[in-house]
Write a structure and sequence with these properties.
globular; Rossmann fold; six-stranded parallel sheet; about 525 residues; 13 strands; alpha/beta; 2 domains
């Protein structure tokens, strides 16, 4: 009774709001960040409508309505085979990949808006107090314009340059390069060239190709009276990013950009099946866990790399758990356990798991740090190179490019971590840094969402950079006046000095001549 009274006294009264939470990318690693947020909003009494590929299907959440978009996994599966090949893209492939992915998203959004559940929302008589949209693209922001309510963008990781531009947040190509680039913390000359060229290219391509194409899709399904999508995205109130300053590179952020970090309840475990649990319990020499996440399937790696991994595992005295998406792994050694789907957090929490071979996704990195398991990172796309480089920087990981993978290199890396306790101690130190914050990401996300609801937007946090022309932002008009002025002044100074010097020379020559006479 006393606890109930205390909770009542400290609780902040919040009116029930109607919230639309729209996500577009079918990936459990993305959706697992968003799920706790819409669940918590529902538990707080808000009426939440979710459009997403991973609905909770929790009947106890009576004020949660979910539009199931899980069909998108099939659509994404065919696409991922074309660009997720397991190794980092080269210099030119970075640009080609962006062209391909933005086109894929355009097709996906067109299909997205066709779905009956989405059509019912677009054409219905719903009223929403805020729209929360996954902000890899601005297309879902059209819901906010349709319902004339504030817009909040959210990502499950960092944000690409065009997304940061929507709130006017600075993104310098050297100290805050685009998170999709296959570069680490310390930029080589090649990396700096790539980052600079990409920062220019991605903005030009976005403004001239992506935005007009997405705007056509919006008007196709929402009506031709909709504002231009480029204007819709500029009215965003907040941008919520799942970034942690320990894992991610430090960058300046405006008040409208909120860095969350640690949104998911990582220590909530799904049970291990009895066969896997027995395998782990009986692995007295330690277990190495191998998974390349949900977007790149191990079973779709080039055969040469699968053979290298199998040869390496067969030579070592440890046991291995491999997330393998098929029923059979040809040539599987006796010390390897395969399973199509593994509750990763529960496995990493097992005391016999000593090493995680991972692609370096953000969610995997958060989980392995939380459970004090060092990594061998083999990055392939998006932010994975940077994440693995973070592990190397903090001393709890080793990075191997897939193209460089050999039996000798992989064997040496596994032995190095399994026999050297410093990797374990370094990941423990990193975990203390990562989690030492006054509040967790979930509480922060919910507070800021309710802040926008309470104030019917957050335009007072808007960057002044959003209200000036690009040529003024780049100071081109200032340089246009200052440079000619400085040039004229320097030229006049040169001419005056030249006249003075010539005059002095003549007088000096005349005086010398007079003395001689």
């Amino acid at each position: 009774m006393i606890w109930c009274i205390l909770l009542t006294l400290v609780a902040v009264p919040t009116e029930s709001a109607n919230i639309l939470f729209a996500t577009s990318f079918a990936s459990i690693s993305h959706q697992s960040v968003f799920q706790p947020i819409w669940k918590e909003l529902s538990l707080r009494g808000h009426n939440v409508t979710v459009i997403g590929s991973n609905p909770l299907h929790d009947k106890t959440l009576t004020n949660l309505t979910e539009v199931d978009m899980s069909y998108m996994y099939n659509q994404k599966k065919e696409t991922s085979k074309k660009w997720l090949v397991g190794q980092k893209p080269g210099f030119l492939q970075v640009f080609m990949k962006d062209v391909f992915l933005t086109y894929f998203f355009s097709i996906m959004h067109d299909n997205y808006f066709q779905q009956p559940g989405v059509q019912n929302i677009i054409n219905g008589d719903n009223e929403f107090d805020v729209v929360i949209a996954e902000w890899l693209f601005p297309t879902l922001g059209a819901f906010a314009a349709r319902f004339k309510c504030p817009l909040i963008g959210i990502t499950s990781l960092g944000a690409p340059i065009p997304s940061l531009d929507t709130v006017g947040n600075p993104s310098h190509p050297i100290y805050s390069p685009d998170h999709n680039l296959p570069i680490g913390r310390e930029l080589s000359y090649r990396d700096r060239v790539l980052s600079t060229l990409y920062a220019i290219y991605v903005r030009v391509h976005y403004q001239l190709v992506v935005l007009p194409r997405e705007d056509k899709t919006v008007k196709k399904y929402f009506g031709t009276d909709m504002p231009y999508l480029g204007d819709i995205e500029r009215n965003i109130s907040l941008l919520l990013l799942n970034r942690n300053p320990v894992i991610h590179k430090i960058m300046p952020v405006y008040p409208a950009v909120i860095e969350l970090g640690n949104v998911r309840p990582i220590k909530v475990y799904k049970p291990l099946n009895s066969e896997l649990k027995d395998f782990l319990d009986n692995s007295k020499n330690g277990v190495v866990y191998l998974s390349f996440g949900t977007n790149l399937l191990s079973s779709e790696l080039p055969e040469q790399y699968i053979d290298i991994i199998l040869q390496t595992f067969s030579k070592l005295p440890y046991n291995f758990v491999w997330k393998w998406e098929k029923d059979v792994l040809p040539g599987k050694p006796k010390n390897v356990f395969i399973q199509k789907w593994i509750p990763q957090t529960a496995l990493l929490a097992h005391p016999n798991v000593k090493l995680f071979i991972t692609q370096g996704g953000l969610q995997s990195l958060e989980e392995t740090i939380t459970h004090h398991v060092p990594i061998i990172g083999i990055p392939s796309h998006s932010d994975q190179t940077f994440n693995v480089d973070t592990a190397v920087k903090y001393g709890f990981g080793i990075c191997i490019d897939l193209i460089d993978l050999t039996v000798e290199i992989l064997e040496d890396a596994i032995h190095e971590i399994m026999r050297n306790d410093s990797y374990k101690q370094n990941v423990i130190k990193t975990e203390k840094l990562m989690n030492d914050f006054p509040t967790n990401g979930l509480e922060k996300a919910v507070w800021w969402i309710e802040y926008v609801i309470r104030h019917k937007g957050a335009q007072h946090l808007r960057s002044p950079a959003m209200d000036i022309p690009w040529y003024q932002y780049l100071l081109l008009d200032v340089f246009a006046i200052v440079f000619p002025f400085v040039f004229v002044m320097l030229y006049l100074k040169y001419k005056i000095m030249n006249i003075v010097i010539c005059t002095l020379k003549k007088r000096f020559s005349k005086n010398v001549k007079t003395k001689k006479e």
